[in-house]
Amino acid sequence: MKHNNDYNKREFIEVYDTTLRDGTQGEGFSLSIDDKLMIAGILDELGVHFIEGGFPSSNPKDRKFFELAAKKGFKNSKLVAFGSTRRKNTAAKDDANLRTLSDMPVDYAAIFGKSWDLHVETVLKISLNENLDIIADSINFLKAAGKRILFDAEHFFDGFEHNEEYAVKSVKIALEAGAEKVILCDTNGGFLPHKISKVIERLKSYYKVDLSKLGIHTHNDTDCAVANTIAAVMCGIRHVQGTINGYGERTGNANLSSIIPNLELKLGFNVIGKEKLKGLVKVSRLVDEISNNMPVKNMPYVGESAFAHKAGMHANAVLKNPSSYEHIEPAAIGNNRRFLISDLSGKSNIEAKAKELGIDLSKLTISEEAELLNKIKELDWGGFDFESADGSFKILMDKYLSKKAKNYFKLLAFRVNTEKNPLNPANLSNINNTGSLPLSLENNIFSEAVVMIEVQGKTEHTVALGDGPVNALDNALRKALLKFYPILSEMKLTDFKVRVISNKTKSGTASYVRVLIESSDKEDKWTTLGVSENIIEASYQALADSITYKLTKEGL
């Protein structure tokens, strides 16, 4: 898929990642030292040019990170320690923050300082000239300590709008003191692209500031952080900052998962190179996983749904020519094209999904295809949402097409019990004088499942305990099947979701529920589903499909 643009000179853009510092300021985003080291390693592998590792003077964890990271070494990235300018009424050499920065085992230090006169006068409560002295003194101290300095002009755009000349003075004083780059920050995230462009053009034309000495750092409070970054680049900025997946304080930072491919693929800049770009999705999802955050499915470029096609007309067009509904080849950033099955599906969705799963539909007649499509829509109406359950969809297709799906086992009966504080004779002796159970037994709860199935002409009757009714049922089912299918020992349940399905005849706790179970083995993961007004029955359906999928996959 080719894109024409006017910026195909392959000019170089520096990428500065601050996921490990600014990203951790986001709500629900917390990293251990090991987590930070792991993410730093994958960012280095991706090829970002700078990794801002943390704020060492603010906490011992970040100080330890820099100590360990220095021993690890990086192939592509330069590690940066973050801090602030010196405190007022304190010489730079006596400032604890700057001394800590100067001691860090890194070549680069990034410090932020005030460029908005409102902050200088109402937050710091010092004169404007004193603030300029603070900036220069702090940079001079760190340079004398052998550091290469990036100066973050905090609130620069707000400052420029409020007091243009003073905001520019803060930039020029930092450059004169020896900062290698001054980063223009939209700290409040309130600017729009046209205003970002206007400010940078005025810096270039009226104030004669060398744009090669500037960078851009935007926040996403207007949902324009990526657009604002691109606008800055279009004006001549060649150093961009952000975080993977846009993590950060409030509504987040500029999303490098979108900025990097936009610059590389849409505008033709040399950012990390097209080979490394193929690892972007992997990095995006690893950062989510390591930080224990759910991936955003519809995130541009890297989201699981970024190249998913649900409408029948879309699927039909994509099968003929992917560029009809895809702006790039998914593989360019390491993503995959997906076709979804739902009540909106057409014949093309079924064909595309079947091809994706390795199912041959070529022998079906037109009427049989129509019958299959109607069957899927009928099941969807009943709550069987195959969009998120490829495993169950494949089993359905195998059964419908060629009787290929083998009946590996037949359920005869199951029973599941859950008990809370069972007062059997052994427990009664533990009741204290108040008539209540001691704390050790107060939360006593367990589930037991009994399963009777027929396998290879034999009846198996098993009992198992579990942490909850579904786990007990899973354990009992596996216990019965393992002697016949030992390969099941490498399969595990990795996720379990329940959703209430709207139904006019039933509501509340009597509603139908859809259970989705994600399973995995050493090589693969798959999702199966079940639907019933009984959550245990729905869970059994999903479990049975999951096991069937595994056994079919193994060719048994």
Jot down its keywords.
556 residues, TIM Barrel, eight-stranded parallel barrel, three-stranded antiparallel sheet, elongated
Q: How would you explain this protein's 3D organization?
A:
With 556 residues, the chain is of the alpha/beta class. The protein has 3 domains: 14-290, TIM Barrel (Alpha-Beta Barrel), CATH 3.20.20.70; 308-381, no CATH class; 409-484, no CATH class. Helices cover 39% and strands 19% of the residues. The chain is built from 20 helices and 16 strands. It has helices spanning 33-46, 60-72, 96-103, 117-124, 128-144, 156-162, 164-177, 193-205, 225-235, 256-266, 274-277, 280-290, 312-320, 347-356, 366-381, 390-402, 425-428, 439-442, 469-481, 535-553; strands at residues 14-17, 50-54, 78-84, 108-114, 148-154, 181-186, 214-218, 239-242, 308-309, 338-339, 410-420, 445-455, 458-466, 492-501, 512-520, 525-532. The strands form 4 sheets. Strands 1-2-3-4-5-6-7-8 form an 8-stranded parallel β-barrel, surrounded by 9 helices. Strand 3 (78-84), helix 3 and strand 4 form a beta-alpha-beta unit. Mean pLDDT is 84; it is low at 1-8 and 427-442.
Gyration radius from CA atoms, angstroms: 30 Å
Head-to-tail CA distance between termini: 41 Å
Strand order of the largest sheet: 1-2-3-4-5-6-7-8
Largest sheet: 8 strands, parallel, barrel
Helix-strand layout with pairing:
Layout: E1 14-17, H1 33-46, E2 50-54, H2 60-72, E3 78-84, H3 96-103, E4 108-114, H4 117-124, H5 128-144, E5 148-154, H6 156-162, H7 164-177, E6 181-186, H8 193-205, E7 214-218, H9 225-235, E8 239-242, H10 256-266, H11 274-277, H12 280-290, E9 308-309, H13 312-320, E10 338-339, H14 347-356, H15 366-381, H16 390-402, E11 410-420, H17 425-428, H18 439-442, E12 445-455, E13 458-466, H19 469-481, E14 492-501, E15 512-520, E16 525-532, H20 535-553
Helix pairs in contact: 1-2, 1-12, 5-7, 6-7, 8-9, 9-10, 13-14, 16-20, 19-20
